[in-house]
Amino acid sequence: MPPGGTQGAFPPYDLEDTSPAAVNFRTPFGNTPAIPLPATIDSIGMQDVINDPTRLLQQAIRGHFIEKVIRLQIATTPELVPYSGGGIENIPFLAANADAALMFATFWIERIRHPARPIMQLQYVQTVILNFPILDTTKNFGWPHVSVATLQKTFG
């Protein structure tokens, strides 16, 4: 799996930063109670997941024997993935607030050895850069939106 980390000029969110601005980053008024972390994230460490979201994918395959992997990479620009360079469409009702400017993703199709029958699995990491307009300027503020998932095919 490729290493994760910071995209662009933003440093990773630091959970040890207890300044009022950092503490209220996700809860604007600081009045939302803490939500317990799922056991998977808690066992890896939340800061490690923030720094590299693919740690969740690595955790999901830990201890499994992967018989075969097919890796696909796509991007909206060939600078990120050679021979790529499709387009990206905005959701019409959201386009007024944010522009999906860039997208890149890696997909792993995996066959995992299992005593009963092989398990087919899809893992992916996807980053979409959303551009938000800055008021009273012609510039945009780019913000990364990262998604990771592990999906297993079920039979029957």
What does this structure look like?
The protein has 156 residues and is of the alpha+beta class. It has one domain. The chain is built from 4 helices and 4 strands. Strand 2 and strand 3 form a beta hairpin. The N terminus is likely disordered.
Concise description?
The protein is an alpha+beta fold.
Q: How big a fraction of the residues is strand?
A: 25-35%
Structural Rg:
19 Å
Q: Name the shape in a single word.
A: globular
Strand order of the largest sheet: 1-2-3-4
Percent helix among the residues?
Answer: 10-25%
Count of structural domains? 1
* Unreliable sequence segments: 1-8
Q: Main beta sheet: strand number and arrangement? A: 4 strands, antiparallel
Number of helices: 4
Return the structural class: alpha+beta
Kindly report how far apart the N and C termini lie. Answer: 31 Å
The sequence of SSEs as H and E is HHHHEEEE
Task: Work out the number of β strands.
Answer: 4
Average pLDDT taken over every residue: 77
